[in-house]
Design a protein that fits this description.
The complex is a heterodimer of chains A (about 260) and B (about 375).
Chain A: E1 2-11, E2 14-24, E3 29-33, H1 40-47, E4 54-59, E5 62-63, H2 69-75, E6 76-79, H3 91-97, H4 110-117, H5 133-147, E7 152-153, E8 156-157, E9 159-163, H6 171-186, E10 190-194, H7 198-204, E11 207-212, E12 215-220, H8 222-225, H9 228-235, E13 238-244, E14 249-256
Parallel strand pairs in A: 3-10, 3-11, 6-9, 9-10
Antiparallel strand pairs in A: 1-2, 1-4, 4-5, 7-8, 11-12, 13-14
Chain B: H1 11-17, H2 24-47, H3 55-63, H4 70-105, H5 117-131, H6 137-143, H7 147-167, E1 168-169, E2 172-173, H8 175-199, H9 202-213, H10 221-238, H11 242-248, H12 252-257, H13 262-284, H14 290-302, H15 306-330, H16 339-358
Antiparallel strand pairs in B: 1-2
Classes of the chains: A alpha/beta (about 260), B mainly alpha (about 375).
C-alpha cells in the first residue's frame, strides 16, 4: 500500500499542498484528478521525492525517505510529464535505461516486448528525437515498464507512478495505454496516475482522488467521487455526469462555460 | 577508421549481429579499429621529428646487433618516447573529461574549459611564471621545473572546489549554476591573468605565450610520472560513471528514480574531470577542442552510450593529439608550432560545424 499523510509543500513561501493525504492500494488503478494548479503533480512529485515536503509517505509501511534509491527503484517506476533527452539515443537504448537498476540481467528480447506493449513494435532502431510527442511518451512508458516489469516482486507489489501518461496520445493509444495500466493492476501491481481526462478516469479508475486548492476534496470509488456537485465545485464550471448504453458507461459533458452558481 | 555501417547490411544479417537499435557490436569494432589506429600513429610518431632520426633505421641497427648511435638513442628514448606517452595521456584525459562533462551537463558543447577548470589552471601557471621569483628560494629550488605544472594543477583544483561550493546548496549541485559560475570564474581568472601578463617581462612573456598555446615539447619522464597516475586514476574512476551518465541523459530526477545515486555520481564526475584536466593542463598547457571534437565524432559513429563512448574517447583522443603533435613538430621544422594552434585550427571550424548542425535543437 502507498500512503501519503498530511503532505505540505511550499514553493518559495507559496503553499502548494496544504495537508493533502492519499492512499493507493495495489491491484487498483488510482487516479488523481483536479484542475490546473490543484497540486496533483506536486503530490506525485512529493511521493517520488522530487520536491521537499513535510508529512509522511509510506510504501508498505516503510518510510520512503529512509529507503535507499536502488531499493526504491526496484519497487516503483516514475513516468515524468515531459522528457527531453540530451543525446541522440535510439529508442532501444532509451528503453534499456529502465533496466539500469535491475539486480539480474533481464531476458533477451525484453526491450522488443516492452515496445510491443505500448504499440511501438519495430521502433527499436529509430532515433528517439525523430519521434512524435506521443510516440516519445510511449517510449518513456515502455522504459518505465521495464523497470518494474513484473507487477509483483519479492518485496511485494510494484508501482507505476505516472504523471499524465496519456496527455499527448490520440484516442486509440489512450485506450491502449489505459488497458495496459488496468492489466498491470489486475496482475497485482499498483498504479497511481495524474490525469486530466475525466472520461478516461471514469472508465478505468478503480479509485479516484479529486484535488483542489492543495487539498484532497474527495476520494473513493469513481461513482462516489465523480459527481455533478463535486466536479462543479472543484473545476468551477458546470459539469454533468451521464451514463450511456449499452453497458452503463459513465461519461461527462461540460454543461456550460459559465461558472456554476 | 569507422566500423562498417550496420544499416548497410541486409536485414537478416543485421538481426543476427544484434538486436535492432543496439550499437554495441559496432562500438566493439570501433574500439578495435581505434586501437589499431593508435598503434600505427604511435609508430609514426616515434619516427617523425626535426632531427631526422629514423625509427626503422634504429630498429634495424638493434636487430643486427649493432649499437644504436648515442644521439639516436637519446632522441628516441628520452625525447620522443616520453613525448609520445605524454601525448597519449593528455589526449585521453582531455577527450574523456570532455565526454564526462558533456554527460554531466547534458550538453554536447560542454567542456572542462567551459566550467573554468582550464582557466583556473592557466591562472595558476601564469602566477608561477610571473611571480615565481618572489617565492622563498628553498621552495622554488625544491619544485624546480615542476613549479609551473604544480601551480597549474593547484589552480585547476581550487577553481573546481570553488565552483562546486557555489553550485551546491543543501546537498544538491545545480548544473546550471555551475556552468554560469564557471563562466564568471573564467572571466575573473582571465582578468587576473591579464594583469599579470601586463606585469611580465619579455622572457616571461615568451614563456606565457608558449604555455598558453599548449605544447608537448617539454615532455620528460618526470612529468609523465607526475601526470600519469593522476590521469590514469581519474580515467579509471570515470568507468564507474558510465551508467549514471546514461541515466542522467533523461534528467536528474528520472536518473534518481532509476536508482542512480545522482549526487555521489556528480561529485565523482567533477573530481575526476578536475584531476584529469588539471594534470593534463599542468604538463601540456592549454590544448583546446579535443574534449569537444572527439566525443562528438564518436557519438556520430557509435551512439551516445557512455559505456562505449568513454573508452573509445580515450583511444581517439590519444590518437588525435599525437597526430596534432606530429603536425606541430614537422610543419615548420626545425621550429615547432604550439600544438594548441594546431588543435584550434582543426577544432574551431569543427565546433562551428556542430553549432550550425544543432542550431535548432540547442537551448543552453
Amino acid at each position: 500500500m502507498l500512503s501519503a499523510t498530511d503532505i505540505y509543500v511550499r514553493f518559495s513561501r507559496t503553499p502548494v499542498l496544504k495537508g493533502a493525504s492519499l492512499t493507493a492500494r495495489p491491484g487498483e488503478v488510482s487516479v488523481i484528478v483536479g484542475p490546473n494548479g490543484s497540486g496533483k503533480t506536486t503530490l506525485l512529485r512529493a511521493i517520488t521525492q522530487e520536491v521537499g515536503f513535510e508529512g509522511e509517505i509510506r510504501l508498505d509501511g516503510e518510510d520512503i525517505t529512509a529507503l535507499p534509491g536502488w531499493k526504491l527503484a526496484a519497487r516503483r517506476a516514475v513516468l515524468p510529464q515531459h522528457s527531453r533527452i540530451a543525446f541522440p539515443f535510439t529508442v532501444a537504448e532509451i528503453v534499456r535505461l529502465g533496466m539500469t537498476a535491475a539486480a539480474t540481467p533481464p531476458p533477451k528480447g525484453r526491450v522488443a516486448e516492452a515496445l510491443e506493449r505500448v504499440g511501438l513494435a519495430g521502433f527499436a532502431g529509430r532515433p528517439y528525437a525523430a519521434l512524435s510527442g506521443g510516440e516519445q511518451q510511449r517510449v518513456q512508458l515502455s522504459r518505465v515498464l521495464t523497470q518494474v516489469w513484473d507487477p509483483v516482486g519479492p518485496e511485494g507489489a510494484r508501482w507505476l507512478l505516472l504523471d499524465e501518461p496519456v496527455s499527448s496520445l490520440d484516442i486509440g493509444h489512450q485506450l491502449e495505454v489505459m488497458e495496459l495500466l488496468a492489466s498491470y493492476a489486475a496482475e497485482g501491481g499498483g498504479v497511481v496516475a495524474v490525469m486530466h481526462d475525466l472520461n478516461l478516469t471514469a472508465m478505468y479508475a478503480d479509485h479516484v482522488m479529486l484535488m483542489a486548492g492543495g487539498l484532497m476534496q474527495a476520494s473513493g470509488a469513481p461513482a462516489d467521487v465523480l459527481t455533478d456537485a463535486n466536479l462543479t465545485r472543484a473545476y468551477g464550471c458546470a459539469l454533468r455526469v451521464n451514463t450511456a448504453p449499452p453497458a452503463p458507461a459513465t461519461f461527462l459533458l461540460p454543461h456550460t462555460a459559465r461558472p456554476a452558481g | 577508421m569507422a566500423a562498417p555501417a550496420l544499416s548497410d547490411r541486409p536485414s537478416p544479417l543485421r538481426r543476427l549481429a544484434a538486436a535492432e537499435g543496439d550499437r554495441r557490436p559496432r562500438a566493439r569494432l570501433a574500439a578495435l579499429a581505434l586501437t589499431a589506429l593508435l598503434l600505427v600513429i604511435c609508430v609514426l610518431s616515434l619516427g617523425v621529428g626535426a632531427s631526422g632520426t629514423s625509427l626503422p633505421a634504429a630498429l634495424w641497427q638493434a636487430f643486427n646487433g649493432e649499437e644504436i648511435a648515442m644521439r639516436d638513442r637519446l632522441i628516441l628514448f628520452d625525447i620522443r618516447l616520453p613525448r609520445l606517452a605524454m601525448g597519449m595521456l593528455v589526449g585521453a584525459a582531455l577527450a574523456v573529461s570532455g565526454a564526462v562533462m558533456q554527460g554531466l551537463f547534458r550538453n554536447p558543447l560542454a567542456d572542462p574549459g567551459l566550467v573554468g577548470v582550464g582557466a583556473g589552471a592557466g591562472l595558476g601557471a601564469i602566477l608561477a611564471i610571473v611571480l615565481g621569483g618572489l617565492l622563498p628560494l628553498a621552495l622554488r629550488d625544491g619544485l624546480g621545473y615542476a613549479l609551473v605544472p604544480v601551480a597549474a594543477f593547484a589552480g585547476g583544483w581550487v577553481t573546481t572546489v570553488l565552483l562546486y561550493r557555489i553550485a551546491t546548496r543543501e546537498g544538491r549541485t545545480s548544473v546550471a549554476v555551475m556552468l554560469l559560475a564557471g563562466i564568471a570564474l573564467a572571466a575573473l581568472a582571465g582578468a587576473i591573468s591579464g594583469v599579470l601578463v601586463y606585469m611580465a617581462d619579455d622572457s616571461q612573456l615568451r614563456d606565457l605565450t608558449f604555455w598558453g598555446l599548449g605544447s608537448l615539447a617539454g615532455a620528460t619522464w618526470g612529468k609523465v610520472l607526475v601526470a600519469g597516475p593522476l590521469i590514469g586514476l581519474a580515467l579509471a574512476a570515470t568507468s564507474f560513471l558510465a551508467h549514471a551518465l546514461n541515466a542522467l541523459a533523461l534528467g536528474e530526477a528520472p536518473a534518481a528514480h532509476l536508482g542512480i545515486p545522482v549526487q555521489r555520481m556528480k561529485r565523482l564526475a567533477v573530481v575526476s574531470v578536475a584531476a584529469a584536466t588539471g594534470a593534463a593542463v599542468a604538463v601540456s598547457g592549454g590544448i583546446g577542442f579535443i574534449g569537444i571534437v572527439v566525443p562528438h565524432l564518436l557519438r556520430l559513429i557509435i551512439g551516445p552510450d557512455h559505456r562505449l563512448l568513454l573508452p573509445n574517447a580515450a583511444l581517439l583522443g590519444a590518437s588525435l593529439l599525437l597526430v596534432a603533435d606530429m603536425i606541430s613538430r614537422t610543419i615548420i621544422a626545425p621550429a615547432e608550432l604550439p600544438i594548441g594552434i594546431v588543435t584550434a585550427v582543426i577544432g574551431g571550424p569543427f565546433f562551428l560545424w556542430i553549432l550550425l548542425r544543432n542550431r535548432a535543437g540547442l537551448d543552453l
